[in-house]
Amino acid sequence: MAVIKANREEIKLLARLIRAEAEEDGKLGMLMVGNVGVNRVKGDCLDFKGIRTIKQMVFQRPGGFEATQKGYFYQRARDSEIRLAIKVINGERYYPATFALWFFKPYTGGCPPQWFNQWNSGRYKSHCFYQPTVSSCPGVYR
Q1: Alpha carbons 17 and 46: distance in angstroms, whole number
Q2: Radius of gyration for the alpha carbons in the chain, expressed in angstroms and rounded
Q3: Whole-angstrom Cα distance, residue 105 to residue 107?
Q4: Crossing angle of the two packed helices 79-89 and 8-22, in degrees rounded to 10
Q5: CA atoms within 13 A on the CB side of 26
Q6: Is the peptide bond preceding residue 138 cis, with omega within 30 degrees of 0?
Q7: Biggest alpha carbon distance in the chain?
Q8: How much is the pTM?
Q9: For the chain, N or C: smaller number of CB within 10 Å?
């Protein structure tokens, strides 16, 4: 059962995003990026207040995703990424992105313990993931 509303076009949009942001990290990395996207729609908190749809989440300004801002959000969604998007929309969560609202790829070194005042929940391949506290964003934890 879906944890956020999504029509076919929104599923494809999320699939394009996870491909653009994490294709190099494989299936699990793309699922984690999908978790972050779904959490931003569910959360309605912090930088993501008023984000209620996948389209709003993908194209959020300011903030949002590097892929949509720096020109590498152009590839179509393949069937494999569409299946991954459906999994995260249906509530499948993957650690360390389980409750994460942010991720980034550090250019050097490891993941800092905090990023924009949010705690590091872990790293998967090239991405560090950061989650809010329960009190600052309870919607992510439902």
Answers
A1: 21
A2: 14
A3: 6
A4: 110
A5: 3
A6: no
A7: 40
A8: 0.95
A9: N
Q: What is the DSSP letter of 134?
A: T
pLDDT digits (tens, 9 = 90+) for 87-118: 999 999 999 999 999 999 988 889 999 988 89
Half-sphere exposure of 70 (CA within 13 A, CB side): 7
H or E segment and range at residue 127: strand 127-131
| Cross-strand partners of 103 | 129
**Do residues 67 and 73 make contact, with C-beta atoms less than 8 angstroms apart?**
yes
pLDDT at 64 over 90: no
The pair of structure tokens assigned to 87 is 């999994």
Which residue matches tokens 């653009």?
Answer: 20
HEC readout, the chain: CCCCCCCHHHHHHHHHHHHHHHHHHHHHHHHHHHHHHHHHHHHCCHHHCCCCCHHHHHCCCCCCCHHHHCCCCCCCCCHHHHHHHHHHHCCCCCCCCCCCCEEECCCCCCCCCEECCEEEEEEECCEEEEECCCCCCHHHHC
